[in-house]
Write a structure and sequence with these properties.
single chain; globular; mainly alpha; 6 helices; about 120 residues
C-alpha cells in the first residue's frame, strides 16, 4: 500500500513537472511523462492508460516503452528549447549561474541524441 502511494505521488509529481515543462524551455516534458508512465504502471492502471492514450504525448510514450526510441523531431525540438534556455541564461544570469543551463543542456542532449530514432 505504501509503495503504491509512493509511485502514485511520484507519477503525479512527474506529470506536474512535465506540465511546467510545456512552458519552460529548460524543463523537458516527455522525459517527465515517461517517468510518470513508469510510476502509474505500478500504482494506477487508469492514469497510465490515460497518459499512454494522450493525443499529443501518447505516441512518444508508446514508442519509448516498446523500443526505447525518440523521434528526430522531438530531438530537434529539445535541442532548440535548450538553445533558447542557454540564451536566456546567458542574458539574465551572472556567471557562474549562467553556466548551469549550458551544463544541463550538454548532459541532456548528449543522452538524448544517443538514443535510437523511431
Amino acid at each position: 500500500m505504501i509503495k503504491r502511494q509512493f509511485y502514485l505521488t511520484g507519477g503525479l509529481a512527474a506529470v506536474g513537472l512535465g506540465a511546467i515543462g510545456v512552458f519552460l524551455p529548460l524543463l523537458p516534458t516527455v522525459p517527465f511523462l515517461i517517468l510518470a508512465a513508469f510510476c502509474f504502471a505500478r500504482s494506477s492502471p487508469k492514469l497510465e492508460a490515460r497518459l499512454m492514450n494522450h493525443r499529443r504525448y501518447g505516441h512518444h510514450l508508446v514508442a519509448w516503452r516498446a523500443n526505447g526510441v525518440i523521434n528526430r523531431r522531438a530531438k530537434w525540438s529539445a535541442t532548440i528549447a535548450f538553445a533558447i534556455s542557454i540564451l536566456i541564461g546567458l542574458m539574465a544570469l551572472p556567471v557562474p549561474w549562467s553556466l548551469i543551463p549550458i551544463g544541463v543542456a550538454l548532459i541532456s542532449l548528449t543522452w538524448l541524441w544517443r538514443r535510437p530514432e523511431g
